[in-house]
Amino acid sequence: MSDRQEQQIHGSAISLGGRGCLIVGEPGSGKSALAIGMLTLGADLIADDQVRLTRTGSTVMLSAPDDLPALIEGRGVGLLRVELGAPAPLALIVDLDHTPDQRLPRARQRDLLGLSHRVSFARGVHNLPAILRLALLGGLVDPENADLT
Fold it and tell me: Which of 3, 33, 57, 116 could form a disulfide with 109 if both were Cys (CB 3.0 to 4.6 A apart)?
């Protein structure tokens, strides 16, 4: 029996520093806009609108479905041609439907393909592309379980 599982979901995915980020939210929540913001900061676009999740062992990889065109939606402008980046391991989920409930929110987890992943509620967060860039390059610290000295 194989431990490989796959799922396709509505969302966008980017990678930076070899770490993947899955951006989820309702239509119009800003998934593509956040991905475009990340592209301007050096990230690679893995997929826009549809993302393939593939689990092998203890890793979930983000990739573009085979038939996905190399385009991203610039809302109000049109479709923009981009080069799609390579698949990357999921490091963080950004949820644009939910607002953070604290200035330094506790670490939250979401299950994908039977594995738990860090999720950040980010609706209305200012400077989100810059914050996300730092999170992917340096990692997030859980203030409840970290030595902050």
Answer: 116
